[in-house]
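Usage

Read records sequentially. Each one opens with the input sequence:
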Amino acid sequence: MAALIRFALTQRLLMMLITLLLIGSGYSAFKQIPIDAFPDVSPTQVKVIVKAAGMPPEEVEARITAPIEVELLGIPRQTMLRSIAKYSLTDITIDFEKGTDIIGQGNRLQNV
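and closes with the structure output:
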């Protein structure tokens, strides 16, 4: 150990270059690391919210929610379809398998 310390003290320029090289490679590794500090753990999801002024929940369910749900049941890679009908409002949520490209699925949703 004494020999290593003696070498480091006598070769100061070499030790400075090694230190700068380690700092530079550490910074480079830090910039390229693919880890996200706050990963998104929620499923890929699409929400359809429809306002129907003056309609009670029963009418919203029968006239708006049910027909939309029937059309959405055939979407590929869908894992769950759920909805809630309230006074003048329906909220339909569609969950997809992990990794599903919902932008590519968007054409199907726009045709409904």
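Summary fields computed downstream for this record:
- The chain has two domains: 2-31, 44-98.
- The chain has a mean pLDDT of 86.
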